[in-house]
Sequence to fold (768 residues):
Amino acid sequence: MPETIPEDSVGLVSPQTMQFDEPLEFACGRSIKSYQLVYETYGQLNANKSNAVLICHALSGHHHAAGYHSMDDKTPGWWETCIGPGKPIDTDKFFVVCPNNIGGCHGSTGPNTINPETGKYWGPDFPPLRARDWMEAQFRLGVRLGIDQWAAVIGGSLGGMQAMRWSLEFPDKIRYSVAIASTMSLTAQNIAFNEIARHAIQTDPDFHDGYYLEKGTIPKRGLVQARMLAHVTYLSDTLMGDRFGRVLRAGDFQRGQYNPIQFEVESYLRYQGEKFSTTFDANTYILITRILDYFDLAREYDHDAVSAFSHARCKFLVISFTTDWRFAPERSREIADALIAAGKDVTYAEIDAPQGHDAFLLPIDPYIRLFREYMQRIADEVNA
Amino acid sequence: MPETIPEDSVGLVSPQTMQFDEPLEFACGRSIKSYQLVYETYGQLNANKSNAVLICHALSGHHHAAGYHSMDDKTPGWWETCIGPGKPIDTDKFFVVCPNNIGGCHGSTGPNTINPETGKYWGPDFPPLRARDWMEAQFRLGVRLGIDQWAAVIGGSLGGMQAMRWSLEFPDKIRYSVAIASTMSLTAQNIAFNEIARHAIQTDPDFHDGYYLEKGTIPKRGLVQARMLAHVTYLSDTLMGDRFGRVLRAGDFQRGQYNPIQFEVESYLRYQGEKFSTTFDANTYILITRILDYFDLAREYDHDAVSAFSHARCKFLVISFTTDWRFAPERSREIADALIAAGKDVTYAEIDAPQGHDAFLLPIDPYIRLFREYMQRIADEVNA
Fold:
């Protein structure tokens, strides 16, 4: 709970819900007749509606990107570091929109909501989505909010993948694309980690082939396992060493007796896993990791990223972090190289930071400074 | 099945069993009254018994390091690449001994054997071992075989950790220590991966707090999960990319229809996990990963590796592989640096290889050449 709301926070915010009663057809060929999106907005839309920014969340994210839901809230939104008055995504200058994606589990229509046609949870029968399905839903939300063109579509990790996909799906509807700690496609190692996480969930006896909500249970063990594993990939080896090292939480190494030993890092990961398992839906985890695995920006352009990006009309900011081993700097350099070869306006920065993939969420000075200055230029342009 | 045994293989071999009826006291303070070790030997002990080499196996290894058990054997021992006539560990020149460590699950006394005092499986009640307990058991095996001093103690990964520990536990009983793809202690990230693997096993409902054998079951899901995860850490990102990339085994990405997709890498990992789960004991997996986590070569020397190695009297060969991210080259450089500072004779080589941690098992030309030449020098010395 914040004693007082910090001055550079958007403060108390409330999620909103938008109901859509027109069908949405997905890339898989299936469609849903109606759906709803939960979203938050920060800042004010300007008179000519040119200052709207779309925030795309990553795997474990949601619509609550900044501010507090109440004075009892212990933590602010997930991107509080970057969204607020005077922050990179400056809410004094931008109208910021952050939806929970369709298929998510924080209020938008997804596996943990009721399918009105059956009266039961969607569960594993929710259509298998692709990233482009999110684009369509996000686009429609923008239309409803009176936004014809986004000043910028912005995201980190999977959010960055959406920001790039936007530049190809709706080239005229986006002025800037900001892809942070992102990639044009997952590597075999990335896919492997996702597959192991899914395996943990799917083999949990409480998973019940995905129909666990009907059974009144959740595959808690699997979710804990999935989150522990994912969490390791979000941190650098260096950061884990600095933060936990080989420090013990319990027991000791004394000879001649046996005191069960627990390392700090074990305790930390179990805590993270437990916390996640109470707030995230297992079917959504499977659905979104599949979206990650399937994502391949250049697939429909003969696997040629230059050809893909030649369809874009916006400008690009691409940022990576030196110790990110989930989506390594090399992945972002590939993006920047392809954009340059496609003749696009791209700013690329590789930030020297020890925090690994999660760096995009953290107050790292050179990152925040660069991000703020770039966004300031956009603000000047769209508010001119 | 080999049609014919290759000329550079030790050929058909048989495991042997050595029974020990003197008590073995462990570092934890507990002891067992009797135990047995399963082991294999290749080559002949020379007249002055100076050419014996001890092979220490890693987490998933065992006594069957080279050759074939029968003409129906599909695969040879796990270090066939390095052990045999004319190979680095040349069985024409060395008498090679490879035991399954105590606490293991391939025939030596361990959690999946019967505790004679209770008539039941040891299971989770097997004493929690440390690496030094293995040294003592290996030492006694050497004595029984008439070996007063090992020409070399050799191992990769956890095997290399044993080879180093030998140089401190029995400084007069070892002439050369060869530590390949190894480390003086695990990093927080290493521990995290082990913990996640243990968590998978321990939360499998079939684990029954470790008493699964009494219940007539095994925690198969947990073992599959543990192995899939470990396997990813044994391979480099590059190798996984080269071998699997984003190739599909099933399904396709066509729009407008939903064909469930499976990547090659998923299929491969599931196969590896399934195979492992039928051959490895879950309690042993927990026991050995704990040994890995606890291992800290310098702990009892004020955490000063130079001080630790000052007790050694042997010479050292240390080898690392550029893309090994489990025990990175930096870990081996720390070993080499400490040995140099301690005034020891050390040869250190960092092999440029794309295969990651598993490189120590593979026929990588510069690695094999260096290893062979180094071992040749030892052979000349001990057979002189």
Notes: The domain at 16-185+297-382 of chain A is CATH 3.40.50.1820 (Rossmann fold). The longest helix of chain A spans residues 365-382. Chain A has two domains: 16-185+297-382, 192-288. Chain A touches chain B through 54 residues (CB under 8 Å).
